[in-house]
Amino acid sequence: MSAEVVIAGAGPGGMAAAIEAARGGASVLVVEARSEIGGNAARSTGYMAFLDSDLQRDAGIEDSEELFLADLRKEVDYQSERYGLFYDEELARTVVRGSTGVYSLLRELGIGFNRFIPRPLQHSVDRMVDVDDVSHFRTSFEPEFARLGIEVMYNARAERLIVEDGRVAGIAVRTNAGDGDAAQQHRGEVQDLRAGAVILATGGYQANPALRQHYQPAFLAGGPYLGIDTARGDGHLMGQTVGGELINMTMIPPLVMVGSALVEDCIAVNLKGRRFHDEAGTYDDRVAALLAQPEKRAYYLCDGRTARAKDHLIEQMPGQPVSAASIAELAAGIGCPPDALQQTVEEWNQLVASGAERDPAFGRIVFPAERTGLTDAPFLAMPMVIGANFPAGGFRVTPSLEVRDVFGAVIPRLFAVGDCVGGVNPASGLGGMHILGAMTLGRIGGRSAARLVGKAV
Predict the structure, then answer these.
(1) Fewer beta carbons within 10 angstroms: which end of the chain, N or C?
(2) Are residues 231 and 303 in the same domain?
(3) Beta strands per DSSP E along 50-134
(4) CA gap 438, 40 in Å, rounded
(5) How many domains does the chain have?
């Protein structure tokens, strides 16, 4: 099989790259390790930050490219104190400028955005919004793939780049690889796919314990991680074998494993049955707060209404949840004083019902969208567990998303997008940047690949 552009991975970066390459006139073949497209985006919270969206304009919010970039710079400076990072300022500017185009593309595909998500410690103004339904990151792209004639090879794992005469000429793919199932990773047949250009879009490497151990040996190499089980660093390893320079690989930040869209409906309690921090605060603050608790144990609490509405996020939580018909029964299940837990829940419910914009105890400003408290049985307690966030490491690239080698030269016909790029993701902790960055760079990478094979101006 062959195509003018072959893309390894159908997450947000790979999907955007495929659409732009196909719209540019190139034949496109996507190799996807899972049984569906969408990647981490289709299982995410769905928060994205946009500059100059109609939501901002309708709300009269004054934002600018420079203000957005300043917020990104602040986040990178903070993270650099621990990790020491290479930050590509021009690539970051490209992401900010391209955010408006990504917003337009998603609206064109039928994806809607509901409301602003306030993050004043990270974003100077409201620019982060939530998608109406994260499954639309799959279902809205599938018809466009069909319309453009984009082929997708499912359950196929990209294993090796084919290099001829010093140029990347395709990918060797193992078929019937069985999603991220370790027992099936080496089954199936290996097939060579020829290409005029190859785009690496395989995601991060948080699901690869060996890579995590190599780059950050002190931190939870075999522990839980955010995202899908096919984020094994396949693109990183393939590109490295042909000389690609990897940067920022040691940045694998810790976080408490919970989706942000779930935590806005939850409270967190310790073994005393008391709240102890701003549940919707920064990832680092959540980790520090949990580590400061007795036995380093605590639980997220939600009610039946939230459990039904956000079951896909609850299913991703590590550990065994405790379900109970009453708050007193829930307290017994997690080993905290029932009177204290009952009082904590009542105080929270009163705060939410009051319409207050700030929690006086911990400064929380993110509340349930419907302003509903914990009132609907059964009640659920989910263990708070520290795991690995999306890593920041990836390839050093050109403005066209061509992969550079360790000497700074371009590796001919090889591109990288999404989590395979290492210069922008250090700023992802700002909030709303992960999917945005992947799609913005994916669009550029797709156009660049189409131009390279002579199908677009």
Answers:
(1) C
(2) no
(3) 113-116, 128-131
(4) 11
(5) 2
Q: Is 89 left (phi over 0), alpha (psi -120 to 50) or beta?
A: alpha
User: Rounded to whole angstroms, how far apart are CA atoms 194 and 251?
Assistant: 34
Same domain, 203 and 323: no
What is the CA angle 52-113-69, rounded to 5? 35
Judged by DSSP in three states, 281 sits in coil
b/e per residue 58-96 (b: at least 16 CB within 10 A): eeeeebeeebbbebbeebbebbeeebebebbeebbbbbb
In this structure, what CATH number is given to the domain that contains residue 357? 3.90.700.10
pLDDT averages per 10-residue partition of the chain, 457 residues: 97 98 98 96 90 94 96 92 89 97 97 86 91 93 98 97 97 81 66 98 95 82 86 98 97 91 94 97 93 96 96 91 98 98 97 93 88 94 95 97 97 98 90 95 98 76
Residue 379's H or E segment, with its range, is strand 379-383
Residue pair 220/387 in contact by the 8 Å Cβ criterion? yes
* Residue-number span of the structural domain to which 304 is assigned: 255-388
CB 161 within 8 A of CB 242: yes
* 416 bridge partner residues: 200
Q: Which two tokens stand for residue 276?
A: 């102890």
Relative orientation angle of helices 141-148 and 12-23, to the nearest 10 degrees = 30
Residue 359 sits in the same domain as residue 401:
no
Tokens 């913005």 -> residue:
440
Q: What is the distance between the alpha carbons of residues 41 and 303, in angstroms, rounded to a whole number?
A: 25
Residue 99 belongs to a domain with what CATH number? 3.50.50.60
Q: Looking at 357, 388, 419, which one is the last position of a domain?
A: 388
First to last CA, the chain: 26
- Joined together, the tokens standing for residue 182 give 């370790």
pTM given for the model = 0.92
Helix (H) or strand (E) holding 328: helix 327-334
Q: What is the DSSP string of 16-55?
A: HHHHHHHHTT--EEEE-SSSSS-GGGGGS--EEE-SS-HH
Residues 6+ apart with CB under 8 A from 314: 262, 302, 307, 321, 380, 382
Check whether residue 163 and residue 284 sit in a common domain: no
Q: Answer yes or no: do 397 and 364 share one domain.
A: no
Element (H, E) at 6: strand 2-8
